Amino acid sequence: MLESMNIQHTRAEYKELVDNIFRIIPEMSLSQDMIVGFCGETEQDHQDTLDLMRYVKYDFGFMFAYSERPGTLAAKKMPDDVPFATKKRRLQEIIDLQQEHALYRTQQHLGKIEEFLIEGTSKKNPNEWKARNTQNTVAVFPKENYKLGEFVMIKIEDCTSATLKGTVIGYSDNN
Fold first, then answer.
1. Lower Cβ count inside 10 Å, N or C end of the chain?
2. Residue 129 in contact with residue 146, Cβ under 8 Å?
């Protein structure tokens, strides 16, 4: 499947790269872009994708069902032979597993104190700031007297699969 998508590395090479990344930078955040139902994808290929996801446990993901794009090599040379219903099921399985892994990854922050850059008002609560850490993970916390663009230290107290929730315990040295 990787070869038919013109991916230039093997599964084993990719896993070795992931292992080295986490060995060197254990707190690294990895994201993925995945297409399900690419031309010729078998059920075993799909299961291999799920197995790789279980191995890496990506923090974030962007997942799509394959659809032909005019002018691409795949559209010109490969039949779109995976039924829509199969693509839809496989995509949902990938999304569900990614949600599980995203929650696992955000839970690793619970109880920790981390530096965040305030980047704007929370979409869900105008009385909260939204901020990001160096792993691109979003946290929300009460606005109080903090300002846009400030670096703050936040104690992580709760989380969802996408968002950390906490309390500011002070300013970062980066201000």
1. C
2. yes
The dihedral built from the CA positions of residue 66, 69, 72 and 78, taken in this order, carries a sign that is positive
With bands split at pLDDT 50, 70 and 90, how would you rate the model's confidence at 29?
A: very high
Tokens of 83: 């039924």
Share of the chain above pLDDT 90, in %: 83
CATH 3.30.70.60 matches 11-107:
no
**156, 111 contact by CB (below 8 A):** yes
Task: Please give the span between the terminal C-alpha atoms of the chain, in angstroms, as a whole number.
Answer: 48
Confidence label for 91 from pLDDT (cuts 50, 70 and 90): very high
Name the segment(s) of the chain with CATH classification 3.30.750.200. 11-107
* Position 104 confidence tier, pLDDT thresholds 50, 70, 90: very high
Within the chain, all domains assigned CATH 2.40.50.140 are found at 113-171
> Which helix (H) or strand (E) segment is 69 a member of?
none
Name the CATH superfamily for 113-171: Nucleic acid-binding proteins (2.40.50.140)
User: pTM of the full predicted structure?
Assistant: 0.87
CA pair distance 29, 27, nearest whole angstrom: 6
Pick the closest to residue 32 from 12, 57, 8 (CA basis): 57
Query: CA-to-CA distance for 168 and 146, rounded, in angstroms?
Result: 9
